[in-house]
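Example (one chain per record):
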Amino acid sequence: MEKNLMRGTLLLTASSLLTKILGFIYIIPFTALVGTSGYALYKYAYGPYTLMLSLSTMGLPLAVSKYVSKYNGLGNYRAGQDLVKAGLLLMTITGIIGFLVLYTMAPWLAELVINGKDSSGNSQKDVVYVIRMVSFALIIIPPMSLLRGYFQGNQSMGPSALSTIIEQIVRVLFILVGAYAVIHLFHSTMTKAVGIGTFGAFIGGVGGIGILGAVYLKRKRLIMKEVNSGKNNKSVSFSSMFKELVTYAVPFVLVGLAIPIYQNIDTFTINMLFQSIGYGQAKAETINSVIGLAQILVMVPVSLATAFSMSLIPGITSSFVQGNLREVKGKITKTLQLLLFFTLPAAVGLCLLGKPVYMMIFGAKNSPEIGGVVLQWYAPAAILFAIFTVTAAILQGINQQKKLILGLGLGIVVKIVLNVLLVSSLKEIGPVVATYGGYGVSVIYNFYLIEKFISYRVQSLGQAALTPVLLVSVMSAAVIIGNYTSHYFLENKLSPSSLAISTSCISIALGTAVYLGLGVKTSLGQSVVLNRRKRM
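Predicted structure:
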C-alpha cells in the first residue's frame, strides 16, 4: 500500500513538473510567432479565464480527493460514487455558467484594457474574440477536475497524471501548430492565430477528460464491485456532501488565486495607467506583454522550489496534530531554509543576467531592452511568491486557513493602490515594485499569524538563511566574472542574439557549478541530497 502511494505521488509530481516545463517552453516559439502585441492579446484572454476557472473548479482535485479518501477509509465506497454522479452534473452546470459569464463579459473586459480612441495596438474587437475563444474551455475543465480528484482519492494517481500530461501536450501542440498554420499557411491575421491559441485550452481539456473517461469505463465493473462490497455504505445527502467539499476546497482556492489575481491586476490596469501619463496604446501593450513574460520566467524557480518545500508540509501538520509544537517550529524553519536554498540563487541569477537571459529566451524582436530591465527588477519577487505559498500552506497545516483571507485581501489592496501611485514616477518598474508591496504585506501578515498561534520566532530565520545567503554571495561573484569575461571576449565576434545566448549559458553554468559545488559540502546541501535519496 505504502509503495503504491509513493509511486502515485511520484507520478503526480513528475506530471506536474512536466506540464510546468511544457507550459513555459511553448511560450518561446509562440511569442516568436505572434510578437509582444500578440502575447499581450493572449494575456487579455488567459487572465480572466484563469480566475474564472479557479472559481468554477473550486479547488476540486484536492478537495474531492480528500473527500473520497475519507469515506473509503470508513468503508463507505458508495459516498465516492455518489459524489461522481452528482459532482459531474454540478461541475458541468458551473462550467456552463462560467462559460456564459466570461463569454458575456468579454466586451466589458475589452473596454477595460483597450482604449477605443487609440488604434495603435490591439482593438477591442480583437480582445472580445480571444476571450470568447478561451471561454469554451470552462465547459469541460471543471468536470475533468472532479474526475481527477476521484481517482486520486482512490489512491489511483496514474489516470490523473496521464490526463494532466495529455491535456498539456495536446494544448501546446494545438497552439503552436494552429498559430503557425494561421500565419504561414493561411496567411491570416495575428489575432486569428492568438484566438486559435486560446482555443487550445478547450482542445487540451478534451484530450484530458477523454483519458479519464476511458479509464473510468474500463474500470467501471471493478469500481461497482468495490462499491457493492462496502461494509458501511450509506447515502450522503447532496447538501452535506457539497458543504463538506466547499470546506475542504476554500483554502486551496485562496492560495491558488493569489498569483492569478496579481497578474490580472497588472493585465487590466497597465494599459490605462501608462496611457494616462502619455504613452500610446501600442507602447503600453508592449510593457504589459513584457511584464507578463518576465512573470513566466520568475515563476519557473518558484514552481520548483515550492514543489520541494511543500513536500515537508504534511510533516508539519502531523506534528501539530500530535501537539509537538517544538517539532513544528523546527520543521517550519527547515522548510523555509530549503525554500531559500532553491529560490535565492535562481532569483539572484535572473537579476544579474536579466538582459541577456531575456534576449536569449524571447529574442531580439520582443523588446529585450525593456524586458531585461523588468526581469532584473522582477526576479527577486520569486522569493516573496515562494514564501507566501509555503507560509499559506503552513497556516493550513496548523488549522488557521480562514485567516489567510484578510492577509491576501490587504496585499491586493496595497498592490492596486501602489500600481496607481508608482507608474507616473517609476514607469515600467512601477507595477513590479507594487507587487513587492502587496506580497510583502501578505507575507508579513502570514508570519504574524504563525508567530501568534504557535509562538514561532521569525528572528530565528536570520540564522537559518545565513548559509544560502553566503552561498549566493560567492555564486554572484562567479556569475558577474563569467558575464563580464564572456562579454569582453565575444562582444565583437557575435551578433547581439548569439552574444546573449553565449554569455547567459557561460555565466549560468559557472554560477551553478560554484553554488552546487559549495552547497553540497554544507549541512543544508547534504540534507537536501539525503532527502532526495530517501524519496527516490
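Caption: The chain has two domains: 1-236, 246-458.
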